[in-house]
Amino acid sequence: MGLQFKGFLFFKKFICNKKLNLIFAFQYQVIMEGSGKMKNIIEVENLNKAYNGTIAVDDLCLAIEEGTCFGLLGPNGAGKTTTVEIMENILDPDSGRILYRGGDRGTSFNQEVGIQFQHTELLAYLTVEETLKTFAAFYNRHLPIDRILSMCMLENIKKKLNNRISGGQRQRLLLGLALINDPDLIFLDEPSTGLDPQARQHVWQIIKDIKARGRTIVLTTHYMEEAQVLCDMLAIMDRGKIIETGSPRELIDSHCSGMEAKDQNLECVFLKLTGKNLRE
Ligand SMILES: Nc1ncnc2c1ncn2[C@@H]1O[C@H](COP(=O)(O)OP(=O)(O)OP(=O)(O)O)[C@@H](O)[C@H]1O
Ligand SMILES: [Mg+2]
User: Which residue, among 171, 227, 176, 160, has the nearest Cα to 203 in the 3D structure?
Assistant: First the structure.
């Protein structure tokens, strides 16, 4: 399980012109330093990635403020996982730059971030507790295993084998693995996909607890309710590009005004911006 990075810039709209970026970054830093507000923990500058000619990420820029939950939304194949895995330093970009706390991602990066991949295989012959202990050994320092078991509501199943736990329990274990090194920055790629409403509520509660501890979360999701409940800021991606950014309230206000109250929600924003055609 790898990880890394660095950060700073951006406000609401993403301006991929480098000169403008520099001006905005400078202004932003002055404002932030003057007001004592939080800085960006991670920034993505002019990121590009293609797979055999298929463009997955197209000159993408974004910045994530420390201590926030940042949601990356987009249809299937929009490029969310590719973007996040480049931020995590799992994938190399074709071009572009990732800044973590204003500079390059150093060797300590992978000790400071937590990752929950969209797809993860667990060793079937290990128990939940053994899995946590195994991952803990990858880090210079880690939280006590009992603390992770408690944070992720895993105490009652700690002796169960990984191939005997439910989908919800598995997602909570994957969250536990992402939290084991007590990271400042946590990437969660579709943490509640495929879960029933009860299991999803448990995952949301764990994510709310992480937020309450001031940690930064980068979350991808297809659940608009999840984005609305958990995220402070959102970026909507389509075809490798960021097409809109803002808080859930800002996006709803700017795209759903004049609609019936029942239609004033993120689902409406999402469909309005990305269309109704099926994506693969
Ligand atoms: N390893 C790969 N090899 C070839 N093409 C890939 C690879 N990974 C992703 N792609 C392609 O890159 C594009 C972006 O994929 P990505 O997985 O980043 O999208 P996503 O937004 O995470 O989608 P989803 O919501 O379905 O998880 C898609 O066209 C996808 O088919
Ligand atoms: Mg994905």
Answer: 171
